[in-house]
Amino acid sequence: MIETSLALRMERIGKAFRGVQALSEVDLAVERGEVHAIVGENGAGKSTLIKILAGVYQPDEGSIHLNGVEVTLQSPLEAKRLNSLTPSPVPMSMKKASLLLTHLMRHSAEKEVL
Questions:
Q1: Element (H or E) spanning 62, and its range?
Q2: How far apart are CA 102 and CA 83, in angstroms?
Q3: Buried b / exposed e along 74-83 (16+ C-beta atoms within 10 A)
Q4: Domain residue spans in the chain?
Q5: pLDDT tens across 82-104, in order?
Q6: Which runs of consecutive H residues, i.e. helices, occur in the chain?
Q7: Which of 14, 36, 44, 108 could bond to 40 as cystine, CB 3.0-4.6 Å?
């Protein structure tokens, strides 16, 4: 059954580098129209998760679904092609997205200190 409300679903994503577990059983679901920020401490796996979604890395385990269809993102070019099928109201480059997340993380950290 195709899930029409979910634009993105990542289930039980796992990734290890030379025996170091970067991600373990990570789940992420994003409905159409939602905006999410991925935040966490250094080394928490934020960049690894985004690079898996961008096709830079392939997960060792788990699955990725775009618009209810399971996909395998073998390269950044393939990820860009498939992700372009998912409507996005605000096109944003990875660099801009990274800068936005960095800003959000700094702002969040400042609030925690206050």
A1: strand 61-66
A2: 23
A3: eeeeebeebb
A4: 6-89
A5: 765 444 444 556 666 666 666 66
A6: 46-53, 76-83, 94-113
A7: 44
